Sequence to fold (448 residues):
Amino acid sequence: MGGRKKEKQISDELTYRVLHQLGKMEHMFSWLSRCYLEEQVSVKEWRREKLRLVLEELDRKYCYRCSKREMCQKKIENAMEHKGVLDQEDVVSFLTCHGGPDMIREANQRYQAGLQEIMLEQQRMVHQRFFGRQYQSAANMIRECMMGLEKQDQYGKQADSFIKKQAKSSGLEIGECFRKEQEGHLEIILCLRCRKGEKTAREVGRILSQILRRRMKPQPRCRSVVGESFLWMEFIEEPRFYALSGAMRTAKQGEAECGEQFAMENIGEDCFVAAICDGLGTGRQAGQESKRIIELLEKLLESEILPETAVEMVRSSMLFSSWHERYVTLDCLILDLHTGIGKLLKLGAAESFIIRGRMVEVIAGDAPPVGVFIEGKIDFIRKKFNDGDKIIMVSDGVLDEFGGREAFVQFLKLQRENCPQKICNLIMEKVSNQKDDCTALAIGIWNK
Fold:
C-alpha cells in the first residue's frame, strides 16, 4: 500500500509540472498569434490610401492653379476608384487642361504601381495570417491537453474505480487510466495486466466495450497480448459509419488528357475524404495543375493536419508559388465516420447533391477558386449524414451536359440505385457531347 501511495504522489507531482510547462507554452503561442493577427488592414483601405497619395501628387504638380480643381478631382477620384484607370472623359475640360495627357499618363502609372504594392501587401498579409492561425491552433491544442489532464483527477475519482472494479471481475488489473473524448469518439489509455494468464488485445477491447457500453478496439500499434506484467495499451472507439464510393471521369472531346483530378480515400479509420480539382481550361496543363493541388491536399491530410488548416496551406502555397496566376477550383468533402458530420468546401466549384431517400438537397458555395486572394476565413459547410444517405459531387462539365442544376436534380430523384459506382456509371451514360472535362463522384454512408 505504501508503494502505491508513493507512486500516486509522484504521478501528481509529474502532472503538476507538465501542466505548468504546458501553460507557459500555451501563453507563448497565444501571444505570438495575437502579434501576427493584430495588424488586419482591409484591401479597400489600402486602395483608398494609394488613391489619396496619387491625387495629392497630381494636385501638387498639375492642378493647384486650376479654377475647376475641386470638381475635377472629385471626378478623377470617382473614376479611378470604380474603373481603376483614368481616361480623357474623366477630366473636366480636358481640352483646356494645360497638363491633360501628361497628368492622365502619370496618374495611371502611379495608381497601377500602387496596386502592385497592394498585391504584394496582400500576399504578405496572407502569409502572416496563416502563421498566426497556426500559432493559435497550437495554443488551442495545448489548452485542450491541459483541460484533459486537469479533468483526469475528477474522472479518476468518479469513474476510475468503477472501471477498475468491472475489469477486475473479468481478470484484468488496471493501474492507470487516461481518457480523452473529442468530437464524439472516445480514446482511452490504460496501464494494465492480466491477474492470471494472458488475454489478447481484442479480448481486452471486448471487455472495455462491455464496461463502457461503447465499441472499443485496440490501436494497431498496441501489443497483441496482455500478460501478467503491467504494460500500456491504447484503445479507440470504433466508427459508427462506413463509406463506399464510386467515380467516373472523361476528358473533353478531342483532348488526350483530362484537366480534372479527383481523390477518394480513408484517412485512418476515422475520416473519409473526397475531392475534385479542376484546372483552368482543359488538357495536359490543366491536369498537371489539378494533380499538384490534389496531391498536396492528400499529403497534408495523411499527416493528420486539421482539414481547415490543410486547405489554408493549399491556398497559401498557390498564392506564393510561381504559377499562382493560374487558378483551380476545389470541391472537397471531409466526412467524420464517428459522427456522420461532413464538412464541404467549395472554392469556385460546382454544386454538390445529397440524396436522402427521394429528396435531393443542393449544396452550393460562393468562395472564389484556389489562387484568388480573399479576406477573412474560409467557412466549411457542415451537414449531418445518416444511414443510407448519398452525396454526389460533380464538375461543372457534368451539369452543363445535363442542361443545368434543375435537370440534374430531376435525374437524381428518379434514381433507385444504391451502389455508388453504378450511380456514376448512369451519370456518365448521359454525358455524350463532352464539350468539357467531366468528373462524377458518388459516396454512400451506412451504419456498421
